[in-house]
Amino acid sequence: MVVKNHRRGVGILIRGVIIEGVSTAGKTSLFSAIRGIHSQANNVGKSIIAISEHYSQVLHSYQGVLRSMDKDEHIDLLNRHVDYLELQYNWIDSLGHTKPSNGIFYLLERFHLNHRAAFSNPSDIEVLEKRLLRLNAHCVLLTLSQDAVESRYIESRGDAWKSYVMNNHSTVTEACQKFLEDQNQLRMCAKQSLIPTLEINTDEADWNSYAKQILMGINDAT
């Protein structure tokens, strides 16, 4: 599908944020904060399309059993989401609207970087990233400092989560090291990605402040 980017108003008619990060870095909390603050903002697209990680990540629960998608399955899933965004943009563009308030804001969680980290060949995801760029996508990578990993990653979600994390690790130190390795992999993926990425350290868990920073940044960019 082709985005009909033929009018000067494209920058104000659609824009979006993709939230990436290792589990417990704060994606879902930031997702909620952005939705709340965006709903109160002036001169922005009032129509919002928000797709959480449950509809976009590689790992899914099928009938209560965890299963990872293969590469083709996952890229097909992501492309279907982007197809929908393009359809909505082409529709609003065809109506001749130029006011920012008539535009579309979208929010995606665990999307293209999740794919890059899971699979080796980037060619298919680069095609998708080019489509997202035409839709004014901005990526935010949430990270934790080394000192904050244990309290957030291991302890913050209760005993059931801690048991799940520790199931594949013999020590807390080992589990924290794996978190940092996964986080660095996402950093490398962000450098390879075509979509501009802002890294935000979330040690302070100040979600509203991060959300305001992000929304201000994409408004300035477009």
What's the short version?
With 222 residues, the protein is α/β, with parallel strands linked by helices. The protein has nine helices and seven strands. The strands form two sheets. A five-stranded parallel beta sheet has the order 2-5-1-6-7, with helices on both faces.
Uncertain runs are: 5-9
Instruction: Supply the CATH architecture.
Output: 3-Layer(aba) Sandwich
Shape: globular
User: Strand portion, in percent?
Assistant: 15-25%
- The pLDDT mean sits at 90
Query: How many DSSP-defined strands?
Result: 7
Radius of gyration: 18 Å
Count the domains: 1
List SSEs in N-to-C order: HEHEEEHEHHEHHHEH
The CATH superfamily name is P-loop containing nucleotide triphosphate hydrolases
Total helices: the number is 9
Helix share bin: 40-55%
Explain the overall architecture:
This protein is of the alpha/beta class and 222 residues long. The protein has a single domain (10-145, 195-221), classed as Rossmann fold. Helix content is 52%, strand content 18%. It contains 9 helices and 7 strands, in the order αβαβββαβααβαααβα. It has a 5-stranded parallel beta sheet, with helices on both faces. Strand 3 and strand 4 form a beta hairpin. Helix 3 (71-94) packs parallel to helix 5 (123-134) and helix 6 crosses helix 8 (172-192). The longest helix is centred in the middle third of the chain and has 24 residues, at 71-94. The relative contact order is 0.22.
